[in-house]
């Protein structure tokens, strides 16, 4: 009977060190292999040139190295790149490289599909198949870092967890991936350059605060009125705004990190003055800023971006109340790489 080999990248550094000690080798060998796996992103044991042939063969007999494979790469006219990423079990997720004049941002996925039901988001139409493992999240970042060097002559500067899935529904693996991304033994990126975006799971926001995470938090708010939010994001019935607000206050008290609210203004849904005023009230609970994001149509015409007059109204109401607001344009729309358009179409 063939023994199913274990994914070596599921082991922590400590577990790798222990493995080598059990084999009668030095714990230090674990450090060397760990460095190959993470810092040097080795795809095979053969690449590990400072490890003896015998040890490499022993590793080969016991483990596999599961790497993602960029199956298809699409480049937009504006420089945005979308990767369709094949996982070891042939499921596909997408990640996006977004270049600006000074930065390269990676937008990465945390789940295959999504368990939430935001009615304006293409990903919500895919069933949630499974959570991504820490290495599958990490690999998306490495792939984009390589593409950034190749096509934009600079390394990756920022990461947003705004691809497919709800990161806080795969909290442990997202945290492990961020640990690797920020560790000097991984990519050594500053956590201040990482944003985790959530549709707002109160219990998990509190857990993040308790865990004293150092990355930034964005919340996809879209309405500060329960009835409206529930109509566009039905899970709001389970996690109403009061619970979300309380969790965000807890987050701010513990971390002193201000919160970014992502907000799309839609025609006839949340484009009235009372909607903007409700947002102002919500913003008063904890220091925050608002990103008004452009709507990216997902085909059925039910949701329409509000008029620029409505957007201007939001900006003036927010600014009159001293709330920082930016209006964000989408990138990569011609290749379905913009927010909410990730649905494995190609
Ligand atoms: N589940 C997480 C992260 C993925 S969505 C979250 O909800 O935050 C990333 C952002 O894209 C969210 O702010 C989401 O509300 C927004 N979004 C989803 N569909 C969109 C669409 N069609 N047009 C514009 N933004 C969209």
From TrEMBL:
SUPFAM superfamilies, from UniProt?
A: Radical SAM enzymes (SSF102114)
Q: Which terms are listed as keywords in the entry?
A: 4Fe-4S, Cytoplasm, Disulfide bond, Iron, Iron-sulfur, Metal-binding, Methyltransferase, rRNA processing, S-adenosyl-L-methionine, Transferase, tRNA processing
Q: Which superkingdom does the taxonomy of this entry point to? A: Bacteria
**What is catalysed by this protein?**
adenosine(37) in tRNA + 2 reduced [2Fe-2S]-[ferredoxin] + 2 S-adenosyl-L-methionine = 2-methyladenosine(37) in tRNA + 5'-deoxyadenosine + L-methionine + 2 oxidized [2Fe-2S]-[ferredoxin] + S-adenosyl-L-homocysteine; adenosine(2503) in 23S rRNA + 2 reduced [2Fe-2S]-[ferredoxin] + 2 S-adenosyl-L-methionine = 2-methyladenosine(2503) in 23S rRNA + 5'-deoxyadenosine + L-methionine + 2 oxidized [2Fe-2S]-[ferredoxin] + S-adenosyl-L-homocysteine
Task: Name where it's found.
Answer: Cytoplasm
Cofactor(s) needed by this chain: [4Fe-4S] cluster
Gene Ontology cellular-component annotations: cytoplasm
Entry's Gene Ontology BP terms:
rRNA base methylation; tRNA methylation
Q: Which InterPro entries match?
A: Aldolase_TIM, Methyltransferase_A, RlmN_N, RNA_MTrfase_RlmN, rRNA_lsu_MTrfase_RlmN/Cfr, rSAM, rSAM_sf
Q: What is its main location?
A: cytoplasm
Q: CDD domains, from UniProt?
A: Radical_SAM (cd01335)
Q: Which Enzyme Commission numbers does its entry carry?
A: 2.1.1.192
Per the entry, the cofactor note is:
Binds 1 [4Fe-4S] cluster. The cluster is coordinated with 3 cysteines and an exchangeable S-adenosyl-L-methionine.
Any further remarks?
Answer: Reaction proceeds by a ping-pong mechanism involving intermediate methylation of a conserved cysteine residue.
Matching entries from HAMAP family are given as: RNA_methyltr_RlmN
The record, for NCBIfam families, names: rRNA_mod_RlmN
Described purpose of this protein according to its UniProt entry: Specifically methylates position 2 of adenine 2503 in 23S rRNA and position 2 of adenine 37 in tRNAs.
Supply the PANTHER family for this chain.
23S RRNA METHYLTRANSFERASE, RADICAL SAM CORE DOMAIN-CONTAINING PROTEIN
Designated name of the protein? Probable dual-specificity RNA methyltransferase RlmN
The opening ranks of the lineage are:
Bacteria, Pseudomonadati, Bacteroidota, Flavobacteriia, Flavobacteriales
Name of the gene: rlmN
């Amino acid at each position: 009977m063939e023994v199913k080999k274990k994914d070596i990248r599921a082991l922590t550094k400590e577990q790798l060190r222990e493995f080598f000690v059990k084999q009668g080798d030095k714990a230090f060998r674990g450090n060397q292999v760990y460095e190959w796996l993470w810092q040097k992103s080795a795809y095979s044991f053969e690449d590990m040139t400072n490890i003896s042939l015998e040890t490499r063969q022993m590793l080969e007999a016991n483990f596999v190295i599961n790497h993602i494979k960029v199956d298809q790469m699409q480049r937009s006219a504006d420089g945005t790149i979308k990767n369709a990423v094949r996982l070891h079990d042939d499921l596909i997720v997408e990640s996006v490289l977004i270049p600006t004049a000074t930065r390269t941002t990676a937008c990465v996925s945390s789940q295959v599909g999504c368990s939430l039901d935001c009615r304006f988001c293409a990903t919500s139409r895919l069933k949630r198949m499974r959570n991504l493992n820490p290495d599958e999240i990490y690999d998306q970042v490495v792939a984009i870092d390589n593409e950034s060097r190749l096509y934009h002559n600079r390394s990756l500067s920022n990461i947003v967890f705004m691809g497919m899935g709800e990161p806080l529904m795969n909290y442990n693996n997202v945290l492990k991936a961020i640990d690797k991304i920020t560790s000097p033994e991984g990519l050594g990126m500053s956590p201040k350059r990482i944003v985790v975006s959530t549709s707002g799971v109160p219990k998990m926001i509190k857990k993040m605060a308790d865990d004293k995470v150092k990355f930034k938090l964005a919340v996809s708010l879209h309405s500060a009125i329960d009835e409206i939010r529930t109509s566009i994001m039905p899970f709001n019935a389970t996690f109403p705004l009061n619970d979300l607000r309380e969790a965000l206050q807890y987050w701010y008290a513990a971390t002193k990190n201000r919160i970014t609210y992502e907000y799309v203004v839609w025609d006839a849904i949340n484009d009235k003055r009372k909607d903007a005023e409700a947002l102002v009230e919500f913003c008063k609970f904890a220091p925050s800023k608002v990103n008004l994001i452009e709507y990216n149509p997902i085909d059925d015409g039910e949701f329409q971006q509000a008029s620029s007059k409505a957007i201007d109204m939001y900006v003036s109401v927010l600014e009159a109340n001293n709330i920082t607001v930016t209006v964000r344009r989408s990138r990569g729309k011609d290749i379905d790489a913009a927010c909410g358009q990730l649905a494995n179409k190609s």
